[in-house]
Amino acid sequence: MQSPNRVSTFEYPPLGFMQLRYIEMFQAIMQAGTLTDAASLLNISQPAATKLLKQAERRLGFPLFVRVKGQWHLTPESRMLKGHIDRIFDDLRDLQRLVSNIARAEKQLLRAVTTPTLANAVIPKSFASFRRRFGQTPIELSTQHSREMLKSIVLREADVGITLQELSHPDIRCEPLCQGPLSLIAPRGTWSPADACKPIPIDALSGLPLIGITKADQLGRQIEAHLEQLNPPARISTWVQTYHIAKDLVCSGDALALVDPFTAMSAGAELQVRVVEPVMPIDLFAVYRIDTPLNNVQRAFVECVKSVAAESISALGRSEPRLANTPSPRLQPAPTARPQTAQAPRLQSVR
Question: Which end of the chain is more exposed for a tag (fewer CB within 10 A), N or C?
């Protein structure tokens, strides 16, 4: 029988000691709003949740919540912790996603991600070419902007990404696939067949109605820098986030647009395309992890994208005369009884 005066050798952690379980408890109450629902999120009983909360507050040395009219509210001390706890919890969630992705990764599964612009330009033909070689390979294709794409590759949620931006990260390799020129697209009938097959000086865009690309995009910022040199400046009243949207607006006759060469070559017969001078090169990249070499299936997909992109660039100078031959009724001059003219004749002065 132990003596009641015997001193225990167990040492309690000092005050201010934070445990991961306390963080989980804190987040559960924040998400659920009640201790009962928080216990359900943590898969424990309500009494166990109450005990855990009291233990956390005792070991931290201050209360985390106060209860007012049945509602849980943060104390001043826990408000100071909240930002740090949120970041830790986000990191834990990313870690769990990473573990899950590693566990479920199949060797022959193709998980690709591409930007919205390329999903409507290069990718469809690339997948058609890929399917002729790997008809039974399971594919997961998603569209994300480049910043989200980088995170997906880092977390192994995707194996390979296709983008027009060179992404920088110590764990990521950006492999150049193809390079093409910045292009100007306009409604069909804007230029004569002879002019349509010639490059257009960027100075010729002075005063013309253009659709702008948001500056949040790296390429958009480069285009904006060129346009700022024009005098008088181009008239931009509409800003969009993707080149595909810009292309659709040009199809509707809204204005002209400077776009990447792959969007330009996906325009079809409704639009004309001219290369801008001086040439502004635009690169296409494949993005993947440095520590995970692409397997045969993933490498084959990248090569299909590279081949389709190169074919589009080589065709860029050959398609404009064909597209210009059939004028659009929407762009024809108005009848002589009406003095106004449609938008296209106004743009025909561009050379």
Answer: N
First to last CA, the chain: 103
- Apex CA 225: angle with CA 220 and CA 229, to 5°? 140
Q: Is the same domain home to 66 and 30? A: yes
Tens digit of each residue's pLDDT (9 = 90 or more) over 66-122: 888 777 889 999 899 888 888 888 888 878 877 776 665 444 678 999 998 899 889
Residues 23-38 have a mean pLDDT of 87
SS3 201: strand
Q: What total of structural domains would you count in the chain? A: 3
Structure tokens given for 317 = 């100078």
Placement of tokens 């006759």 in the chain: 253
Structure tokens at 30: 């924040």
pLDDT in tens, 116-153: 889 988 999 999 999 998 888 888 899 998 889 999 99
Same domain, 168 and 202: no
Nearest to 275 by CA among 154, 185, 147, 144: 185
**Mind listing the pLDDT tens digit for each residue in 165-200?**
999 999 999 999 999 999 999 998 899 988 888 999
264 touches 251 (CB < 8 A): no
Place of tokens 């033909």: 125
Continuous H helices in the chain: 20-32, 35-41, 46-60, 76-104, 116-119, 123-133, 146-154, 193-196, 218-227, 243-251, 261-265, 296-315, 320-324, 343-347
Residue 169: CATH number of its domain: 3.40.190.10
Among candidate residues 218, 318, 303, the one with its CA nearest the CA of residue 265: 318
More confident position, 241 or 343: 241
Beta bridge partners of residue 288, listed in sequence order = 173
Determine the structural domain holding residue 86 and report its residue range.
20-103
